[in-house]
Structure formats: C-alpha cells, structure tokens
Amino acid sequence: MFNKFPVNPVRDLQRDIRVASGYDAVLSALRERLNPFGDRPVLVLDGTHGAAFDKWLERMLEAFGGQSARVEAVSAAEFLKSPAEIRELFKDNITDNRAFGYMTEAHISAYFAEDAQKRCKERLAALRRRTGEAGMGDRSDERFAAQTQRLIVLYGTGAHWLADGCGDVHVFLDLSRETQQIMHKQGLLNFALDWNEDALEKYKIAFFVEWPILEGYRKANLTGYDYYADANRPEHPVMVAVTDLVDAARDIAKRPIRVKPFFAPGIWGGQYLKRLADLPEDWDNCAWSFEPIAPENSVLIGIGAAIIEVPFLVIMNYAYKDIMGERPVRLFGDFFPIRFDYLDTIEGGNLSTQVHGKQAYIREHFNYVLEQQESYYIMEKREGSKVYLGLTERCTGDAFIGAVKRAQETGEPIEFTDYVQEWDCSKGDLFLIPTGTVHCSGKDNLVLEISSTTWWFTFKIYDYVRKDKDGKPRPINIEHAEPNIDWYKKPAWVREHLIPVPQKLREQGANEEYVLGKRQDLLFYVNRIHLTDRWRDHTNEELLLLNLVEGEKIRIRSVKRPDVFVEFGYAESYILPAVFGAFEIENLGTGPCKIIKAGVSPEWEVKLTDE
User: What residue ranges of the chain have pLDDT lower than 70?
Assistant: First the structure.
C-alpha cells in the first residue's frame, strides 16, 4: 500500500522533547511558561495566514477566563493597510496576467501601516498599565497567581513583528502549503485582501507575493519564538519549543527523508494515482503528486509517539548543509534544486502543449531564481500512448503561432501534431526537456517528472481550447512562449539529443547502474539501478533522490550504522542527505527492481547564489 503519511523519526537526540498535543496540553504548557511574568503578561500568537487564531483565542478564554481572570485580545489585523492599499502596493507583482506575476522582495512590514509598530506597542503598554483588581492575593503563591493571572494576547499574522520585543512569550502557528491551498478552495482569501478574481489569481498572489514575504518572515524570525505549533488540524494543535524543533529538524536531516506526498486533481488528470494512493472517491481524478517539491511539501516528524507536521522549507532552513552537501550549497545556497513529481494522464487527457522559459527571461520577467528544466520518465503507460517533444519538420514559427492564436479566437481546435512532433514511448523511457523545448505528455501515461525545483513557469502554447472547471478558458501564454521556443529542435535533433539510450555505468554481481540522462544544460542527472539483490553506493557528500519505479519493496540501510534504515515501496521517493554517506539497497520483493537515482549533475557550474 502506497504510504501517504510517512513519518521521519527523531533517533539520536540525547534528551527528551516535550510535545504538547491538543489544546489542553498546549494551554497547560503556555500557562506554565507565562506564570513567572506575573499579572498581564503579553502572549504573542503569530503564524501563517489561515491559522485558526480565533479557535486558539476561544480555548484561551475558556482556560484563562472566569470571574477572577480574563483575556484581553489585540488583533494584528487592526494595524494592516487597507486591502485597496495593499493591492495598489503590489500591483506590479500581481500584474494583469492571469497566471504570472513578478516575485516580490518586500518585507512583512509592507502589509502594515507606517506607524503600526508604534501604535501596537502603545496599545500593549496601556493594557499593561491597568491597575489590578482587588483581592488578587499573595503574588508569591504561584498556584494562586496561575489561577488569577490575566492575559494580553496579540494575535494574527505579523504579531511578532508588531510586538517588536514587547511580548513575553511568542508562539508561531504554522500551516503547510497543502493545507493553505485546501483552505483557498474553501474560501480563504489571500492575506490582507478582501476579494480574489478566481482560484488562479489566488494562487498567483500567494506564489508571487504572500509566500515570499510570509515564508521569508518565518525563516528570518522563527528562532525568536518560544514555541512552534503545527496548526494544520485546527481542532488538535501540536506544539514544541522552537529550540526542540530545530534540533529535531537537524536530527532527521542526517538520514533518509521522505516528504508527505501532496496530491492534486486537474483538468487533464488520470485515474492511476487515485487508485494507487487510495485517494477520495469524490475526486474526479488526480493530475499531480509532488514528492518532493521542496517549497510545496511538508515533513512528518516522529517525536516519540507524537507526530508534528513541518514544511520541508523549515527543515531546509536549519539543516540545508547536511542535506545538500558542500558543492550544491555553493551552487544553490539553501535552495533545494531537484524535484520529483507525477503527471497522471492514464484515462485522462493530454497536457497542454507548452514550453519553459530560459534563465535570463525568468529572471527579467518574473524575478524568479531558476529556470524550469524537466525530464519525463515513463513509469506506466497504456497501449498507444504518446509523448510530444520538439517540432515537426514542416513547422514554422509563423504557421504554429498563427494557428494557435486563431484557435483561441475562434474556439476551433487545430491538429497540433502538424506542428509538434509525436513520439512513441515505452515503459522506462526518459525524455529530456531543457528550456525552450516544446513538449507535453499525451494521455494514458504516468510520468515521473525529474526536474529543477521550479514548477509555475509553464508557458502554455495550445490547450485544445479546453475550459477549466470554473468555465473560464484555460490561460494561454503565447506572449511568453514565443520568445522562448527553440525553433531548431526538429525530429533529427530531438532524437539525437533529447531521447538518450541508457549507458551502463557499472555493475555489482547481477546488479547494474545505467546513465539515463545527463546534459550540460540540465542541472540534474538521471541514473537507474537495476536491482536483483543488493547494491552498495555512496552519497559522495551530495544529496541524492531515489524512487522505486519498478518492483515491490526495498530497504536502504546505512553502512556505518546498520540500525539506521528505511523501507519503501513502489512509486515512493526518498531524499538521501549528503551526510548519509555509504549505504546499501536491498531488494525485499519477489522479483527484480528498478530505482531512479537523481542528483546534481557533476558538470553543472552555474551558481544561483550571489557572490
């Protein structure tokens, strides 16, 4: 059974980590921490947009309230700029393009009024100055003080920044991107806004404005909080001290890591992943599974019997050197450079005909750090399925662009294979897709996409005049696509350069490793291990990604520490951190296995980090 909730256990900490699971335990821990501050301490309750601040306040009122105590709450939202001001401020980032914006470099302070910190601090000081009620008793009696203590709560996204050192205890409530996107579908608007045009605009604003600011804010400030709370389940938060979270992140980063897979339906989606992962019956299909796309996925950390869900970016914030290794860090900083994801079109439809922009174009037009390089590995297929890669011999720019523009205007579909080259595909084939290459997967394929960690910069050229679920035409990006298309990539060139023949690299007994794909213009390489029994390998001090593409089950065990191992099944992926070192892969199934192994190409020298 495909494991949708893989847990990464903390193994080597030489001390216990206290985990508060559920509101009773969380509030008990907060009471204990607040008690030394006497009457009217300030609790700063900050966190990711969408966190259930109201639920936390409700439970605090129950726990701290009563005849002899009360909670006085101050909302961070009181100090925000108006939604109209925020839209105006970020208009050049939001843009009028349906799909694409311009990545902001703003700080969280941009959301707030100019005098927000000053007014907030004055408000907190005024609340602190209020005289205490009569009959408070002997303050040296801690039990009595805990019972009668009154509490000031500054709550909401940005509260820590607003408090500017005035708070006594600070808590960060965090959500995964997956949870936020589920909430978006349920009506959550972008932070500090009061309307969205549609779901596409909502994601665009999150990607280009909200997440860069708020995730950057979390990264810069998290160690300034006392507690971190997994708030993905509003009815049952899980909280740990931030120092313990950092130690736990560093602990799991020394061994194989599997992120929590993130599934999503789509207009062209298929049925294979839905069945494989036992997804909800009411889903029409499953188009994507991310495993891993570093910014999108979270990690389940096992601390004793407790489990806490943490964005993978948080793990990277504190353990990227152990995960990445020296050379990748020199090239990419703390940016995790490679992604695995699935594209399922089995019993579905073709992906849009598309192209990805080149590095200089992505930087100039979208202020994003990395171009979108891709490859398609055909993991499963149905008879007659195709891959579309490069252009036909007779294709010209004027003819192709003219045809797709007319299709958009008239709503009449075109025969796109007059322009885009169709290829037969077989299980186990790899198609390389550097930027500038027109491509798409046809229906009835399960593609394992091995790519650079960029996923939004797909310029759609032609989408069969389909409409999205909201009834609106699917956005076509011809204005961005046309200047990025490599018109010389015709059949002979594609066959020679982008459809590689596997080359045997080495063997160990009956086991073999093949180079499947490597190019100077791709930052990743793709190898495949053919496993009969056991395979000995080494991370060579750089991250590796493994996926079991054929077979039942394998075990990866540390050579240095045989007690450290993970087991996983078909279609599951693991990240092997650079520090893991020598390892052995054992076939636990009844038949042979094949394992995709990907890493940073030894020939890649382009730095994304500033000198």
Answer: 66-69, 131-149, 609-611
Q: What is the pLDDT of residue 585?
A: 98
* Among candidate residues 175, 163, 183, 190, the one with its CA nearest the CA of residue 75: 163
The answer to whether 528 and 596 have CB atoms below 8 angstroms apart is yes
Backbone φ and ψ of 324, nearest 5°: -85, -45
Nearest 5°: phi and psi at 274? -60, -40
Per-residue pLDDT tens for 289-347?
999 999 999 999 999 999 999 999 999 999 999 999 999 999 999 999 999 999 999 99
CA 391 – CA 225 distance, rounded (Å): 54
Rounded Cα distance between 506 and 373, Å, is 27
294 pairs with which residues across the strands? none
| Residue 603, both tokens | 């020939």
- Which residue do the tokens 């076509």 mark? 476
Q: How far is CA 261 from the centre of its chain?
A: 10
Phi and psi dihedrals of 62, rounded to 5?
A: -70, -40
Whole-number Å distance between alpha carbons of 460 and 482? 10
Predicted pLDDT at 609: 57
Question: Among 267, 323, 266, which residue's Cα sits nearest to residue 289?
Answer: 266
Helices and strands in the chain: count of H runs, count of E runs: 18, 31
Residue in 481, 490, 476 with CA at minimum distance from that of residue 413: 476
AA letter at 495: R
What was the pLDDT predicted at 135? 33
What kind and span of H or E run contains 543?
Answer: none
Strand intervals (E) in 22-95? 42-47, 71-75
Report the DSSP pairing between strands 445-452 and 7-9.
Answer: unpaired
Q: How far apart are alpha carbons 89 and 192 in whole angstroms?
A: 12
Question: DSSP string covering 369-398, please?
Answer: S----EEEEEEEE-TT-EEEEEE-TT--HH
Query: Three-state secondary structure along 165-211?
Result: CCCCEEEEEECCHHHHHHHHHCCCCCCCCCCCCCHHHHHHHHHHHHH
Say how far apart CA 98 and CA 474 lie, in whole Å: 10
